Amino acid sequence: MSAKRSEPKVEAITADQVREYLLQNPEFLKKNLDVVTGKALPDRDLGDGVVDFQNFMVKNLQKDSQALKGRYEVLVDFCRDNMSVQNQVHQAALRLIRTRNLEQLLEAITMDLLNLFNVDVVRMAMESDMPMDTSYGEQHYSGMVFVTPGTVDAALGHKKNVLLVGDCIASPVAGLEEIFADCEDLIASCALLRLELETVGKQVVLAFGVRHKERFHSGQGVELLHFLAQIVAYQMDMYLGEMAL
Fold this sequence. Notes:
Layout: H1 15-24, H2 28-31, H3 34-37, H4 53-97, H5 102-116, E1 121-127, E2 143-147, H6 151-156, E3 162-165, H7 176-179, E4 189-195, E5 204-210, H8 223-244
Parallel strand pairs: 1-2
Antiparallel strand pairs: 1-5, 3-4, 4-5
Helix pairs in contact: 4-5, 4-8
């Protein structure tokens, strides 16, 4: 039988070796702050009645460092989220302005925006005094729906143009069961955009709904979505005006 090869013995790193390495590489701790800030420093025994202010200050710096790190991560997530929305809105705007008639516009709203924004339902809700059958099947929930007068203001209020709801169950929105008729139980998060149509003279809302909570939330910027609503309103006004001629 062949003799077993002995494994080389690994010697433990001593404190003096660590100290010597840090002295020779002063930039190491600057680039790896988590090595210091993640560890609790021992209290020094300075005798009765003597307060260790240095240790107190270091502990506070550790807490501040962790707090700043948490805020930084939140800021990064916020910027990433808004960049994603910006790209989606730009793509949607290009698709909408390329339409040539009302039919193409409605198709772009209910089909293309569905995919661009990765949502489950896109609804164009218009207030009407006359009840109309706008029921939808499970295969295609997006489209046009007519709601009772006052529904848009009940949902958005009289002054707000964009409403983002992270949890439609915990924070129910008035009129949501009409706007998302036939699929209201599916909607866990939504975005409602008011459309100002001069030609129609009626309240209209463009609604995005998803089945997951916090897809839309109050921390998101609404300027881009308001811009999108203005494009939709302008295009729709133009086509409705052409049809009236």
